[in-house]
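1st attempt posting a full record on here, be nice pls
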Amino acid sequence: MTVFEEQGGHLQASIDSVLAQSFANFEFVIVDDGSRAKETLEVLERAASKDNRIRLIREGHNGLIAALNVGLSHCRGEFVCRQDSDDWSEPGRIERQVEFLRRTPHVAIVGSYVRQCQRNGDELGVFKPPTAPADVRSFCSVQSPFAHGAVCFRKSAIDAIGGYRKQLYCVEDWDCFWRLIDTFGGANIPEVLYNYRFTGRSVSARKWKEQAIGSRVLRILAERRDAGEPENVEQAVADVSEQFERSEAGYFGALREADHKVLAGDGLAGLMAIVRAVGMRPYGALGWLKLVRALTFIAVPPLRRRLFSFR
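the predicted structure (as tokens):
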């Protein structure tokens, strides 16, 4: 788990869900990426003092990718499970994933179905990615087939591919897992083992432009790998960034940001984001339709699960 200025209640619930796992023989590596917030530090110190399975690593604030790679360097087990600091795992998650990897040697990474929730924990729906290795690999070209915090992978496999690449901020997990799948294979367990919390702090809500650029870069890099050609990450990022400014991706990225804020429970912020997107393209029907959907989502709670497709 990496942590940076996390809300205390969310962080505590996340840590508690790991410590309460039915599979108890683990080390819990937590990398604090230079947090200063009192509530974050208090939760971390209290948890580390109460359970000797926790190894709290303190770093300066170097960003998520650096913290992820520091965490990997401290992991000593055969398998590594990720956990985001504002989400929570079901009690049998680690047991089910370790069991799966032990009996499926041709797979290096496994995720699961994911329950998606508003910031306050209210359920919105379930993300059901493909489960079979061939389908998981095909899905990579659409989006990541895993929620970042929901995966368990072989330590030897992620070391072999070099961990997370620093040039691919905002899509570092998608890139890392795609490379793992290409090299070793991946799968999902068709059970809800993880709970994802939409928040206004998430990368999807704040960094939609970087994610839109990154997703295009990943597809280019995957094509290079498929063709047996070398990957030039820096060149791909530069080329796509230049093209982005002249494309429609900015409009669709803004609408995605708005959706995420609405789902998190930030209704006003979400509505304002949709209005800004509509201003970019006032004659586009999609923006107006999303505005109607957002208003309905806010005003009619019983309809919320029917208004969004969770994938």
